[in-house]
């Protein structure tokens, strides 16, 4: 696979933009999101529409973008995977490319930022009784155990599950198999307890990158093995929360009994017992109110919307490994601004979407932490966390069965050789590599076969007027219908105001096969406070009224950006800087937008929190 560094569409300069004003919400003042750090100056005004031009570039913007260019974007292009040995050797950054591995000897307290001070949280595992670490080997000859859907389990299964959880919680506090010790695994890997082997100044993080699925798969694997050991049943399988199906879109009843070891008091009580989750942003179904600014969904509409969200995140936007898994996360660095030193990875479609939505939905309303599921450091303390991630893991299995020759895992050794440390059911510490966990059946488990209704939920266009996306003048047609109040350049602040941007489409590269080209919308240098809960939706060529934002069931809807509070500003910069990649090929086909159309109108709809966006462009990924 060839590197994209020679592609004419890979730009290192920012275009000029004109921005116009329009709102989805009543007029409100914007507060600066850069209270702790101001990476650039901006005038906090209400902004809506932008128009890219190929005119003279702004030198300041150009320099800022170069300084912030992500090394993994150099290695990965635009999310298309590492480019093979030949290209890596030619890349000067390749000398620092090594697999990720936790440095056990350096494990220290995790930290949680309260907004005023840093709270230390002891999350490291108990010390080894000896220095021996076992390399993982799957159990041979064992039959496949099937994880059941939580809403379908019977009384006999529930009794066994509760007994196992009760015994896990009753283990001595210094036993690595104790429930709190298991919960601390997530805290240690997510809140800066570990540094990387060979790079003591770099903290290890398993979210927002291609490590997300492998880490959580093996985390649940050993948790499940411990439960089975405690009840003498090596074939025991944990339940999964089937939140992608209508029958499973509420918190499973087996977790809601206050007297059960499956219960956690740190949940949002307003979302129990039968409130539907919103898989797009985590907000629950509520009855319509005339005063609401955004449309509210009926119960039937919420289920329908959730199914379209799943189709979006699993089918339309997840055609490649990089889109589904997320960007590469590599050990090593070349400077303090390099991604290896200050990891700001990019998560995949499910991690950034339904995964975060469920965390927000379950977590308690306890600012500033939102324990337990509402914050990474405490999420593992809720037994429901493991059912949630069981379904996340199930999505990995399903993704590889969907049509499309690009739906296969990475094959780069830097990913396959990255590793994690866990205690097994016998209290032995085990080193697991990513290559060990690519197939759940090799690990001895699979999932109960249930219906997958979202496979039948392909979105349809809602455009009622011709003209949008029908020729090179369509951008001016859209902009002409909106009054211009002010013009300014990127970066822009996205708060309570919808933003419309006319983006120039580059020509397709002619040196590659047509079937290998995926047109992708790229939102660059998205900046936000890493402790803020943030959500905004993205659509293209949406020609509806401003007070009726695009929904997941509309073909114009192409995805969302979400952030779950990390609580870890103590080990890193307060500001999170990342990118968002949204494949457009299916949407362009559904909307019948020909390749000859030179512009696409992008609409950004804020749902929660504030962000700054440094640049938006379209590129082609193979």
From TrEMBL:
Cu cation A binds at residues 186, 207, 216. This is Tyrosinase copper-binding domain-containing protein. Its cofactor is Cu(2+). InterPro entries: Di-copper_centre_dom_sf, Polyphenol_oxidase, Polyphenol_oxidase_C, Polyphenol_oxidase_cen, Tyrosinase/Hemocyanin, Tyrosinase_Cu-bd. The keyword Oxidoreductase applies. Keywords: Copper, Disulfide bond, Metal-binding, Oxidoreductase, Thioether bond. Binds 2 copper ions per subunit. Gene3D superfamilies: Di-copper center containing domain from catechol oxidase. SUPFAM superfamilies: Di-copper centre-containing domain. Pfam families: PPO1_DWL (PF12142), PPO1_KFDV (PF12143), Tyrosinase (PF00264). GO terms for biological process: pigment biosynthetic process. Disulfide bonds join 107-124, 123-187. Residues 207-224, 382-393 form the Tyrosinase copper-binding domain. PROSITE patterns: TYROSINASE_1, TYROSINASE_2. One of its GO terms (molecular function) is metal ion binding. It comes from Gossypium trilobum. The keyword Metal-binding applies. Belongs to the tyrosinase family. Residues 456-480 are annotated as: Disordered. Cu cation B binds at residues 355, 359, 389. There is a cross-link at residues 190-207 (2'-(S-cysteinyl)-histidine (Cys-His)).
